[in-house]
Write a structure and sequence with these properties.
The protein is mainly alpha-helical and 130 residues long. It has a single domain (21-119), classed as de novo design (two linked rop proteins) (Up-down Bundle), CATH 1.20.1440. It has helices at residues 11-26, 30-34, 36-58, 62-88, 94-120. Helix 4 (62-88) runs antiparallel to helix 5 (94-120). The longest helix is centred in the middle third of the chain and has 27 residues, at 62-88. 31% of the residues are buried.
Length: 130
Amino acid sequence: MAIVKRFEELMIWQKARELCQDVYRITHYELFSKDYKLRDQINASSGSVMDNIAEGYERNGNKEFVQFLYIAKGSCGETRSQLYRAFDRKYIHQPEFEALLAKAEFLSKSIMNFIQYLKKSEVIGTKFKT
């Protein structure tokens, strides 16, 4: 794996950003936009995925990064659950729901794969360089 110099280069952060943008877009649909609590919750949880990836990366240590990646993965699961609520309330149609769900599931698996990679890595983080 090439050395990543900025969190923006991480594929998982890029995919989290895409999911966050998609969620924001659907929350502007007429019915969805009026369900203030769910709208705000799903925007917060989808934003939390990308934010925790970024924050963990900026800690410059793999142990902390992994901890934040687990939080990001949890937020991704929360976003998936909220997508079900939006679908059940008929705020989004089935094809869009399925596409967003697939994106969120792929992202969750990708985060887990990256966690496993970091746990096996010999590199422990830039803050530990002498």
